Amino acid sequence: MTRPLVRHALYASPLFREALGAIPGLLALAFLGMRRILASMDTQHALNTFYLEEPPAPACTAGSGVVGRFAPSPSGRMHLGNVFASLVAWLSARKAGGRVVLRIEDLDPRTQSGPWAELLIDDLRWLGLTWDEGPLYQHNRLEAYQNALDTLEQAGLLYPCFCSRAELHAASAPHASDGTPIYAGTCKGMPADEVARRMRTRQPALRLEVPAADDPRGTVAFTDRVFGPQCEVLAHDCGDFLVRRSDKVFAYQLAVVVDDAAMGVTEVVRGCDLLSSTERQMYLQHLLDLPTPAYAHIPLLLAADGRRLSKRDHDLDMGSLRSAFGTPERLLGRLAGWTGIAPDTRPRSAEELVACFSWDAVRAHRDNLCIDIQRFMEGAGPAA
């Protein structure tokens, strides 16, 4: 538990090890880059910071070790933003000659009934976004999550938290970049007799204690493939975070870390709304001795009024998209042209888009994109 985190991050990634052999100068560049990133921070513990440099883009060869993934939640019908995230994840893996695995993130009992999981699978098939393994359902993986939780508990890193969501949001504490309140440690160090008394009326959640702000183990840095260098001091930027909810549902952060490792995932491609989750997941990977994949966070597609597309609001969901476009080629071609993946909006299959795809194109169009629904559905190009 006390070994330097930088050692774990560097040697856990097979892509990084390959890069070291292929590009001898990378170590020097990474060191200089790390110094620039941390220059504006309190550098008392900079040299011990947990840092993951972006691996180079792998060559497109058969049998590549790249493994990407789809990880949709069956909380409703896929919308255009979900399609975009799935498309980029698929194109990145296929461009590298890699594999794709499908995971259905149905930890919440409310997502385990209804037609949504089957509709997600059917929509992905219709789009031509094929996968090589799965679907794996999280509700069948509870034992694996419990084993990870036990490891953390045996290390003395967990404590019960009785704070309700309303109490957390009502507090005047600062909020993380994703809107989650930064936990003030209200329940940390609670005496055992008080814990027992409260448990008679309320089941607690479980929180993972993060290192103090001046402890180098609590500073996590990495280079995102789209948004570049990122760095977070866990104690300042998120605080002790949940690993199991009070209803005993395992938290997203814990489950995805366990599942990505079990599925051999080497690159995670997802919306930039999850960018701030990465440092927490990397910290969990270290504690559980799991490999760290490469991360790429892509822009969100927004409604014309600036809000995020939502399954709840049925924004450009796959039911209406399939009806309006008729073929996956028409839909994917339009989407690729609007988001800068392709040079124009002419119909293209997923396979045809592989030749167009590059991370440089994604980086060049990394601002969130407002979708004029009428223009998109009528076949016009994006507004200038």
Features:
alpha/beta; 38% helix; 2 domains; three-stranded mixed sheet; Rossmann fold; globular; 384 residues; three-stranded parallel sheet
How do you describe this structure in short?
The protein folds into 2 domains: 5-56 and 143-297, Rossmann fold; 67-140 and 299-378, Rossmann fold (3-Layer(aba) Sandwich). Helices cover 38% and strands 15% of the residues. It has 16 helices and 13 strands.
Question: How would you describe what is shown here?
Answer:
With 384 residues, the chain is α/β, with parallel strands linked by helices. It folds into 2 domains: 207 residues, Rossmann fold (3-Layer(aba) Sandwich), CATH 3.40.50; 154 residues, Rossmann fold (3-Layer(aba) Sandwich). The chain is 38% helix and 15% strand. It has a 3-stranded mixed β-sheet with strand order 1-7-8, sandwiched between helices. It has a 3-stranded parallel β-sheet with strand order 2-3-4, with helices on one face. The radius of gyration is 21 Å and the shape is globular. 38% of the residues are buried.
